[in-house]
């Protein structure tokens, strides 16, 4: 005999909208605490929840929240992420400028991209809404959604912050790293240049995701010249500013710093999340892999910034990362020494995030 909760799960597929609403609303907490309830009959309840993302907005909201919780389970994640038809529906709804549940859809997509097979998004295409101003590639549409979501100019219901987590997971794959550092034909812009401006954004989610994207992209060593070139990506100011506060530097140190880092206001705040600071420090360490990267950081006085970060951030992992980076920057090097890969080899703890 089914329990009351098992009966409630069955009502997800009711032809009566009021019953579907009541069922999905009451099942949300159990999708997190008792996921086994939804795994009966070869995951049939999951199949019904997938169908409901196109239902009445409140029903769709609850169904999406359940799916977000349930895709923390590996078997459910695989079941949902490998459903190509469902993925097409989800992506089509996500780019709709009137979609009220777009943020929840972005959260669900962020979970789904933990499935390695979702790297196929790089090659996926769908028609782009005219308002979005993108091309037919899904990854470009997601990028443009993320950028426009920062100020709410595309969909008044969504900020699309969780797309930063989508990109962070996808950027663990080599081909998608290449996407981030190569100019796109449809708008002649390097994608990482669109997102680097968010390293100091007010949204914790957006800052964290973007920091991870930049770090993952920095594992592509051949792209480092482009990362560091002022006329291409020019990433250093965007990685250094979040780890700086309002501290005053001696004039000789300050004058050697990048222009964007000089004369910061006394109330300048460094990122309050020490994990973001750690990510930026690891990005800097990756960018010391080449001699050119190390020489540039020395010439623009990166060391004093790391010194102050070490002094002012009370976090052991951050302090350890500072010490590793300083060891690389302060060591003596023979003329002509390139030492490709040396900095990364010294720091075996740096991994994709």
TrEMBL record:
It comes from the Eukaryota. Transmembrane segments: none annotated. InterPro entries: ARM-like, ARM-type_fold, Hgh1, Protein_HGH1_C, Protein_HGH1_N. Residues 333-353 are annotated as: Disordered. Residues 334-353 have a biased composition (Acidic residues). Residues 94-277 form the Protein HGH1 N-terminal domain. Residues 283-335 form the Protein HGH1 C-terminal domain. Belongs to the HGH1 family. This is Protein HGH1 homolog. It comes from Pseudoneurospora amorphoporcata. The lineage of its organism: Eukaryota, Fungi, Dikarya, Ascomycota, Pezizomycotina.
